[in-house]
Amino acid sequence: MKHYLLRFLIAVLAFSAMALTTGCPGVAGPGDIEDQSSGDQPDGGDDPSDGNDGDPTPGPTPTAARYFPDQAIWYQDISNAELDAQSEAVIEWIAENGGFGLGRMQIDFSIEVLEANPSTPMREFDPTWDWYEVECDLTAVPVPSGGAIEGESGYECESDGDCHLLVADRTNNRLYEMWRANIVDGEFFGGCLAVWDMSKVYGPKGRGRDCTSADAAGFPIAPLLFSADEVAAGSVDHAIRFILPNARIRHRVYVSPATHSTGATGGGDDAPPHGARFRLRADFPLEALPNDAARAVARGLQRYGMFLADAGNVALTAQSDRFTTAKWAGLLGPHDLIGIQITDFEMVEAGERISYIGDCQREP
């Protein structure tokens, strides 16, 4: 945690004239708080204290909408990609140390993705000690009326969880992703904000080596979530976000396209680094899964794989169905993929193992 305390001191110096208060206290960076989400759906509805009026309720994300150009790494078919030299050792190590969090491949359905439109108000926020100089962006954020943050019914971070705020502004080709957002009594407090240019194909350094985002590995989150609309349509045509407990992630090491790691406590060279891309084996028996929706996700895992993005207990992350046309109820449940074990995966070629030293160098 030393590097996070240093960031906190830097933030205090940078904002010494600003009173930094928040309803979501904490000094841990993305990835240092274990996600205890069970995948239950939060209730819908407006938050009367969010301070936003006049903007329509966010519409559903189009089924086929992508967040980046087709050439982005999230959309690369890796069906025939070479295996990493450590693939067998890494998979075996994870299996011997507990496998997926909770001992099963469970799905979390709690992260919202909101859609801004030209009338959505842009709101400045007060950075908290979960915002880091250099690594995080400090700019106004579109906040749609009637929206919600991860795990909440509105914009207030009542649970003191990760409270991600994800907003796609397709008019201006910007994706706003904030960790530990909190709007309470009309005041907007925010942790680390990463603003992504959706017209850009990011290179191996992403937003910058050793730089975090709203996710521990330095990735964007929205492109790696699968939605009820996608699954109902029969295919997931992109890589998926997955997480492991901190004790099963390699300590301070990452591989591209990740740009960041944490004080994860995984031991030895065989623990998977942040950014590792796993692929469901081609010979996995899809017919063993309980429904077509589970098979659609599994086919996506075979073709596009999944990226190790953060630490927590619920392995896969889907988009909440609050603002989608299709709904998860009767389509896909949190345990419909438990027939897939960690030993059903292989790790594709990961390239250089990069030691995390905490010296963020932002890319232009």
Structure report:
By secondary structure, the protein is of the alpha/beta class. About 10% of the residues lie in helices and about 20% in strands. It has helices spanning about 1-15, 85-95, 230-235, 290-305; strands spanning about 105-110, 115, 120-125, 125, 140, 165-170, 175-180, 180-185, 185-190, 195, 210, 240-245, 255, 275-280, 305-310, 315-320, 345, 355, 360. The strands form seven sheets. A four-stranded mixed beta sheet has the order 2-6-7-10, with no helix packed on it. Strands 12-15-14-17 form a four-stranded mixed beta sheet. A three-stranded mixed beta sheet has the order 4-9-8, with no helix packed on it. Strand 6 (about 165-170) and strand 7 (about 175-180) form a beta hairpin.
Write a short abstract of this structure.
This protein has helices spanning about 1-15, 85-95, 230-235, 290-305, and strands at about 105-110, 115, 120-125, 125, 140, 165-170, 175-180, 180-185, 185-190, 195, 210, 240-245, 255, 275-280, 305-310, 315-320, 345, 355, 360. By secondary structure, it is of the alpha/beta class. The chain starts with a helix and ends with a strand.
